[in-house]
Amino acid sequence: MNSVKTENNFPAFNDRKAFYKMLCKLVLPIVFQYFMSALVSASDAFMLGFLDQTSLSAVSLAGQVAFVYYLFINTFLTGAMVLGAQYWGKKEYTTLEDVLGVTMRYVMLVGMAFTLAAVFCPGLLMRV
């Protein structure tokens, strides 16, 4: 009952159809995530387009703060992916679990820091 995938679960490099099928399984959720993020920003602009320019500017400014937050999170997760791929390749699964645990802690800390800053000093965030 081992749920860890082995090399046999991956397609051969010369099997293009299987490779593209696996690539689509990997890429489509990522594309969908970015599409939804862009759709939220576009819907904000559309809904506030009927209001004054100040409201639209405020929403745009808040979107920039969220973008900076996403950059921090994406940086941590990209680093974790690189380290995770190395340890997965070496079959050091306990070290991989450690990397994921540390990454989870840092992502939670950054999330809490942004949340606390947004709750207690939103004016400071909007000026930066």
Report on this model:
The protein is mostly helical and 128 residues long. The protein has 2 domains: 1-50; 52-128. It is 81% helix and 0% strand. It is built from 4 helices and no strands. Helix 1 packs antiparallel against helix 2 (53-89) and helix 2 (53-89) packs antiparallel against helix 3 (93-120). The termini are far apart. The relative contact order is 0.06. The model has no long low-confidence stretch (mean pLDDT 82).
Q: In a few lines, what is going on in this structure?
A:
The chain has helices spanning 16-48, 53-89, 93-120, 122-127. It is mainly α and 128 residues long.
Q: Could you describe the largest sheet, including whether it forms a barrel?
A: none
| Structural class computed from helices and strand pairing | mainly alpha
Our measurement of the CA-to-CA distance between the termini, rounded to an integer number of angstroms, reads 52 Å
Q: In percent, how helical is the residue content? A: over 70%
Rg over C-alpha atoms, rounded to the nearest angstrom: 20 Å
Order of helices and strands: HHHH
